[in-house]
């Protein structure tokens, strides 16, 4: 009875930690929209943005302490840049706190569900391994958001160039053409160019504002566009014609990338499936036939069993990266 109560308490604690993690993500992503919905009837856009910024400045003592420490380190600036590239409304300290919560929650869940009751050292190993996996989960999710946002931005770039070309030929200045992009096109490209226009309106030179844009969106195609704009501002020339040529080049590159993605999709998904299959199979066997899997950790065969597991992990990881490298074709 006492053992069942202990397990119940551990499961309850793990569920509470996971709910805290999910709540932090949802509240961070919905904070701006919630404030805008409440104040949108009474305030203009500039006042709403100021209210959102003031609301973000408020935080718990723990997150404030973490933010203060992270701002003084190079790691904090790197995390801040990654959050900006993924458009996640979190501070570096809040992201680190989320990593800690994820590590603790995943470690406890792995300990409760996977660790055997009569083998305390093995339970500690599961706790540590689960904590390490949970520590990297927010980073993996952040990189996923970065790649998704970058792909959407690159897909919208030809339409942005066509709109800028039409505006320049109609007599707009470069800044007015960028402002039209920020008003006419959907996110994320409209959000980024709106920020560029706002920076220039505050007195920041166009070259620096475009460099800030490239720092937030590390796209090779965008780098080509920014280089063309900076060169035209220094030496002159027909910017509309140059951007029209770049737009055609980018469209062709996107078309070729799409064809390559279709041809290499089988290799990519085969690599993912084959890499996850041994892990899933081992987890199923551990849950339905734990004595069979405990042969790897018996004192008589522990050295051989751990060596086999380490070799398996190494082969799975190397095979996954090799198959991804085969399917990664530069255009």
H-E string: HHHHHHHHHHHHH
Helix content: over 70%
Radius of gyration: 26 Å
Number of beta-strand segments: 0
Low-confidence segments = 38-55
Global morphology: elongated
Mean pLDDT: 79
Number of domains: 3
Note the main sheet.
Answer: none
Which range does the strand content fall in? under 5%
- Count of separate DSSP helical elements: 13
Counting helices, strands and paired strands, the structural category is: mainly alpha
User: Could you tell me how far the N terminus lies from the C terminus, measured between alpha carbons in angstroms?
Assistant: 63 Å
Question: What distinguishing features does this structure have?
Answer:
single chain; 331 residues; mainly alpha; Receptor-associated Protein; 3 domains; 13 helices; 84% helix; 0% strand; elongated
Summarize, please.
The chain is mainly alpha-helical. It contains 13 helices and no strands.
Element layout with pairings:
Elements: H1 2-39, H2 45-57, H3 61-71, H4 74-86, H5 92-114, H6 120-169, H7 174-184, H8 189-201, H9 206-216, H10 220-235, H11 239-288, H12 290-293, H13 302-327
């Amino acid at each position: 009875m006492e053992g069942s109560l202990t397990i119940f308490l551990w499961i309850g604690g793990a569920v509470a930690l996971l709910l805290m993690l999910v709540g932090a993500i949802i509240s961070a992503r919905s904070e701006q929209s919630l404030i805008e919905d409440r104040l949108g009837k009474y305030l203009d856009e500039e006042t709403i943005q100021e209210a959102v910024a003031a609301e973000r400045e408020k935080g718990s003592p723990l997150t404030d302490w973490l933010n203060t420490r992270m701002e003084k380190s190079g790691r904090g600036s790197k995390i801040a840049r990654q959050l900006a590239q993924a458009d996640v409304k979190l501070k570096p300290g809040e992201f680190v706190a989320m990593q800690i919560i994820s590590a603790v929650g995943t470690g406890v869940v792995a300990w409760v569900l996977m660790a055997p009751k009569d083998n305390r050292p093995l339970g500690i190993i599961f706790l540590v391994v689960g904590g390490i996996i949970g520590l990297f989960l927010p980073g993996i999710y952040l990189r996923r958001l970065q790649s998704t946002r970058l792909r959407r931005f690159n897909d919208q770039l030809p339409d942005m160039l066509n709109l800028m070309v039409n505006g320049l030929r109609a007599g707009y200045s470069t800044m007015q053409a960028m402002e039209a992009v920020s008003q006419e096109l959907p996110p994320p490209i409209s959000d980024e160019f709106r920020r560029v226009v706002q920076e220039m309106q505050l007195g920041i030179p166009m070259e620096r504002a475009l460099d800030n844009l490239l720092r937030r969106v590390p796209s090779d195609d965008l780098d080509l566009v920014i280089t063309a704009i900076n060169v035209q501002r220094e030496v002159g020339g027909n910017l509309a014609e140059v951007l029209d040529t770049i737009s055609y080049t980018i469209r062709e590159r996107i078309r070729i990338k799409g064809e390559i993605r279709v041809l290499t999709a089988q290799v990519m998904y085969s690599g993912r499936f084959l890499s996850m299959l041994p892990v899933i199979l081992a987890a199923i066997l551990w849950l339905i036939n734990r004595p069979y899997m405990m042969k790897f950790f018996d004192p008589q065969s522990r050295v051989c069993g751990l060596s086999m597991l380490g070799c398996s992990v190494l082969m799975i990881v190397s095979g996954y990266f090799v198959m991804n490298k085969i399917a990664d074709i530069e255009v």
